Amino acid sequence: MTSSEHPGNAAAPTRLLLIDGHAMAFRAFFALPADGFTDGRGQSTNAVYGFARMLFNVVASEQPTHVAVAFDMAGGTFRDRIYDQYKAGREETPQQFIGQIALIQKTLDALGVSWLEVPDYEADDIIASLATRMRSRGQEALIVSSDRDALQLVGPGVTLLQPVKGVTELRRMDPAAVQEKYQVDPEHYPDLAALVGESADNLSGVPGVGPKTAAKWLGKYGSLEGLLEHAEEITGKAGQSLRDHVEDVRRNRVMNAAVTDLELPDDDIVFTLGRGDRAAVNEVFDDLAFGPTIRRDLPAVFLPEGAADEEPGAADVEMPELVRPRGAEIATALSGPFSGGAALAIDGSWELGLGEATRLALATATDLAVLDLTDLDGDAEQALANWLSDRSIPKTAHDTKYAVHELSPRGLQVDGWRTDLGLAEFLCRPDQRPTDLAGLVMRHLQEELETTASGSQQTLDLDGGGSAAADEALARAAHAVHRLEPLLRADLEEHEAQALHDDLELPLAQVLGQMEAVGIQAEDSVLAELDAEHERQQTQVAESAFSHIGGDRINLGSPKQLQEVLYERLEMPKGRRTKTGYSTNAETLTDLFEKTQHPFLADLLAHRDVTKMRQIIETLRRFIAEDSRIHTTFHQNIAATGRLSSNNPNLQNIPMRTEEGRRIRGAFVVSEGYEQLLTADYSQIEMRIMAHLSGDEGLIEAFRSGEDLHNFVASRVFDVEPDQVDGAMRSKTKAVSYGLAYGLSAFGLSRQLRISQAEATALRDGYFERFGGVRDFLRESVEQARKVGYTQTILGRRRYLPDLTSDNRQRRENAERVALNSPIQGSAADIIKLAMLRVDADLRAAGVASRVLLQVHDELVLEVAPGELEQVRDLVVTGMGDAYEISVPLSVGVGVGRTWLEAAH
Q1: Is 388 a domain residue?
Q2: Residue 97: is it exposed, middle or buried by C-beta count within 10 angstroms (0-12/13-18/19+)?
Q3: Which residues pair with 144 in a beta bridge?
Q4: Is residue 453 within 8 Å of residue 427, measured between CB atoms?
Q5: Which of 520, 542, 567 is the last residue of a domain?
Q6: Which uninterrupted H or E stretch holds 470?
Q7: Sheet holding 66-70, edge to edge
Q8: Cβ proximity of 353 and 625 under 8 Å
Q9: Which residue of 263, 745, 765, 774 has the smallest Cβ count within 10 Å?
Q10: Could you tell me which residue ranges the DNA-directed DNA polymerase family A palm domain spans (predicted)?
Q11: Cβ atoms < 10 Å from Cβ of 493
């Protein structure tokens, strides 16, 4: 390799960055939570994200001219033939890590970074060979690896960057640093390692000999060979131990010797930086569901020379001239250039039921304006109000619901929405993120939109009051919305999702916005009393738990302290091992309690339950606004199935299967001027959709007969008369029914029912034997999705599943589970959304004061005005029951009460 030109620099000397791919991927995996990084299809991506971050950071700080990443190959190496127990002590690869190496390699391909594998050799050997080559040519190599064997390569021109914390903090190990830490020079580090051993590689050293003793011996005798030649001179137990384990030491030294002469590519271009493709990187990051931040931090040096001029934010996007109309100019602009509609961007906020808008930007292909909403005279305000409320004037925004929240406090109502970019993007790419405006700009326009998030990710918080810079930033956002709209409208057409956007999701956004603005009354005093009660319970169960371990007052939330108590002091059977010890998660503790029935575990599980309840209550209290109401935020673009979710606070995580959880609903009350809360929900909607989609005659008969569904199903699965079905039979078949609707495997069913996998498989097979239509439907759903690449609901909502044809078994099986449950769950989501639109329209048409407050799962919560109960009850039951016609009746249950708890049914 010869000196080359660093892209963007003049004749920089060659500096080769060498990365141990597997070692750093594993560190990235354990540095970031696997549950916090997924691609939306069940594949964890935390190792990929951490690895990419590490790569970007190192390249930015060290400024190499060339990069190579080395990986181990499956199947072992020549070292395994020398010693068949090599690395035998390593734990099984975590399930969530599987598949991520291939994704890292795919990312490297997009970045134009070479990665290497050599059969029968380790990544260490590839790195050693390239580093040795660089040193022989008087050039520089930087090695990034957590493997201490790489220390032997450190020397003139070769530096090791050794991870200290995760993958972000690296320690520079040059010869002086190696000498200081290990008391030997790099050349003799393998000698020291041979004496001490390496537990990670299952190489046992000399018992009783640590690094200090080994370094002292090597310092005295010069090398390992010199030491072994004088082994008889070493006195004491250590000397005898050395003599007893000479063969182990010699084996270790053979095993840890780096191979430095592999035949590897010897062409500058193979490892040169600057061969990446931004479009390919964006495509890969889209697939991995990575947000805009990591894209923005991509060093320009990865891209071809001159690409720095094209990086996001640097492109000179031509925009219309920005105007700032005032007074009478506003009416002129709205009736002139913007009379045909516009794209909107708003500088404002909305939180806890309070909204504010200070500036409004309007954009078309030829015009761009920013209106100062804090300085409107009467005529201008009326002109703007008329323009916004005119449904014949089409308007587009990134988040139409949020825009309404910001404008409403000024008395400005909006109608005539044409496109909601966030909803359009979600319908076309339900498993991908981001869906914020900056992310859409990055994804579709390959540009960076400079905004600062505040409160919601949709808000443009632009410092500087009425400054020109703030106006220009808001104008850029509106212009971006205008440019994105035709792209996303075309996407909607391509994905056959126009009707879902125009007729379902877009109008629903406005209904949800009304619900959010109204909120629901919550009594803080009730929640405070519940919290105090739970605090007393928390203390009681903690004291009881302490009494079972000798009175030691440990932290019951500390995994480390629990590991010591459970597995060392109480000597309980050890379960799954994690990087910090044996697991103490809820599933593990439940299994342990079933096996041991130890009272400490009973108290520990009770403590966790009551602690969770207190966290829920605390969150609810924090979100009670000044009007004594909770204004949750509903999301249409989070759950890939199409189901609604909520946050700030999440009202869907209030437990309803326990008395303690149900009591929380007692704090939600009817407000002044209203008489009752009414709840209405669908009965067994997933099972009804399963019957409809599968056409199974047995299930359809069950629903049409009016019998108890799960009793009916159990009688056929267990081949008994309906009156002979006991509670256990009913529970098991109910679990199978819902398990199938949610893509549950036989293993998952066995875990849920606490039965053997063989029994779970037999139970499922018995179900399929009696309800063959369900079996055939599920099988055909997967096969059809494999052919076309997606599943779809009764309204045509698609979920794209490219992993159905993946060579990676885990990814393929994850996709198959999604293909099983998405049509059913997604169709249930479609129906409840249709019902919400129908109920809202019927309430308005009837001219009643009653209103919808909440949607939680398959339940609607309404506030009923005096004298309207019977009319509203009939209207809701009819609206929900007739929302969509399927082959079995949609059954709607209704309850009424002064609180949400009393209204349960």
Answers
A1: yes
A2: middle
A3: 19, 161
A4: no
A5: 520
A6: helix 468-494
A7: 114-116, 66-70, 15-20, 140-144, 158-165, 169-173
A8: yes
A9: 263
A10: 661-868
A11: 11
What angle separates helix 468-494 from helix 421-428, to the nearest 10 degrees? Answer: 40
Q: Both tokens of residue 320?
A: 């219309």
Q: What angle do CA 137, 138, 140 make, to 5 degrees?
A: 105
Whether residue 486 sits in one domain with residue 394 = yes
Q: Give residue-wise pLDDT tens across range 201-240.
A: 778 888 888 888 888 898 888 888 888 888 888 888 888 8
The pLDDT value recorded for residue 2 is 44
User: Among 432-441, 486-495, 859-868, 889-898, which stretch is predicted with the lowest mean pLDDT?
Assistant: 432-441
267 and 396 together in one domain: no
* CA 11 remoteness from chain centre: 43
Give the model confidence (pLDDT) of 489-501 as tens digits: 999 999 999 999 9
| Cβ(132)–Cβ(75) below 8 Å | no
Closest by CA to 195, choosing from 235, 253, 150, 234, is 253
Same domain, 267 and 345: no
pLDDT digits (tens, 9 = 90+) for 595-629: 899 999 999 999 999 999 999 999 999 999 999 99
Q: In terms of domains, do 357 and 265 share one?
A: no
Q: According to the model, what pLDDT value does residue 202 have?
A: 76
Q: Is residue 404 part of a domain?
A: yes
Token readout for 474 is: 């808001």
Does residue 394 contact residue 3 with C-beta atoms inside 8 Å? no
Per the structure, how many domains does the chain have?
3
Q: Are 101 and 71 in contact (CB under 8 A)?
A: yes
The answer on pLDDT for 98 being more than 70 is: yes
> What's the CA gap between 143 and 127, in Å, rounded?
8
Give the domain CATH number at 737.
Answer: 1.10.150.20
Residue 171 sits in a domain whose CATH number is: 3.40.50.1010
Residue spans of beta strands (DSSP E) within 194-257: 197-198, 203-204
Better-scored residue on pLDDT, 536 or 40: 536
Residues comprising the chain, all counted: 905
3-class DSSP state of 590: helix
Q: Are residues 476 and 391 in the same domain?
A: yes
* 690 and 774 fall within a common domain: yes
Cα angle 512-516-521, degrees, rounded to a multiple of 5: 135
As a whole number of angstroms, the distance between CA 309 and CA 305 comes to 9
Task: State the DSSP code for 573.
Answer: P
pLDDT bracket for residue 51 (50, 70, 90): very high
Instruction: Indicate the pairing of strand 851-856 with strand 859-864.
Output: antiparallel
Backbone angles phi, psi at 351, to 5 degrees: -160, 140
For residue 314, pLDDT over 50 is answered with no
**Is 169 inside any structural domain?**
yes
Same domain assignment for residues 343 and 483 = yes
> Which of 812, 843, 858 is the last residue before a domain boundary?
812
Phi (first) and psi of residue 357, to 5 degrees: -130, 130
* CATH number, domain containing residue 499: 3.30.420.10
**Would you give the end-to-end CA distance of the chain in angstroms?**
76
For 819-843, what is each residue's pLDDT tens digit?
988 999 999 999 999 999 999 999 9
Residue 722 inside a domain? The answer is yes
Per the structure block, which two tokens stand in for 95?
């399930």
> Shortest CA distance to 822 belongs to which of 593, 643, 687, 614?
643
Separation of CA 523 from chain center:
33
Of 424, 864, 843, 842, nearest to 677 by C-alpha is 864
Cβ atoms of residues 842 and 879 within 8 Å = yes
DSSP 3-state of 169: strand
What residue type is assigned to position 688 of the chain?
Answer: R
∠ CA 452-314-395, nearest 5°, is 55
Closest CA to 423 of 513, 514, 507, 519: 507
Q: Taking the C-alpha atoms of 578, 579, 584 and 588 in order, what is their torsion angle to the nearest 10 degrees?
A: 0
Do 369 and 265 belong together in one domain? no
CA atoms within 13 A on the CB side of 161: 22
- Let me know: does 203 contact 177? Beta carbons within 8 Å: no
